[in-house]
Design a protein that fits this description.
mainly alpha; two-stranded antiparallel ribbon; 7 helices; 4% strand
């Protein structure tokens, strides 16, 4: 989560906040699914004291946590929640002046929407989600045409 840029500074210790969030990130990316431990650590963070940068990171981690829940339990509610949390992350970044420059964030958002579109039976929601995914993928590839994750996702959209 190193590629975020915030316009505002805070009096709280951002290094300590980042360290705690990176620990949670490692748990989320770990090989074993440990939802209780991740939830415990996320719930102990008081978001009122997070820097704008860390608040965006926190929301991203929550979204990833729910996406992992979806993958483990195949519960669409967690996928929808992850999508909503990613929308909230973007809204927070915009409101707080944080520019998201990390491809991992953008890919996660696009991929969650892509998976959600494959499960949707709504004749209006599916094309809407796919158009958002295409826009994110096209935008990402315009900056880095060699990004394998986005190239793969683009191929999935064509298939």
């Amino acid at each position: 989560m190193r590629n975020l840029h915030a316009n505002q500074k805070t009096t709280h210790n951002p290094k300590s906040q980042i360290s705690r969030l990176e620990t949670i990130h490692r748990l989320i990316n770990g090989r074993s699914f440990q939802p209780e431990l991740v939830e415990e650590k996320l719930s102990k963070i008081n978001t009122d004291y997070l820097t704008p940068y860390c608040l965006v990171y926190f929301k991203y981690l929550n979204a990833r946590h729910h996406f992992n829940y979806y993958k483990q339990e195949n519960a669409i509610e967690h996928l929808e929640l992850a999508s909503g949390l990613l929308d909230d992350m973007d809204r927070t970044a915009y409101q707080q002046g944080v520019k998201i420059c990390n491809d991992e964030y953008h890919f996660t958002r696009a991929y969650v929407r892509f998976v959600l579109s494959t499960l949707s039976f709504d004749e209006y929601e599916t094309p809407y989600l796919l158009s958002k995914v295409r826009r994110t993928v096209d935008n990402a590839l315009s900056y880095n045409s060699n990004n394998q994750k986005f190239v793969w996702l683009q191929k999935q959209l064509v298939a």
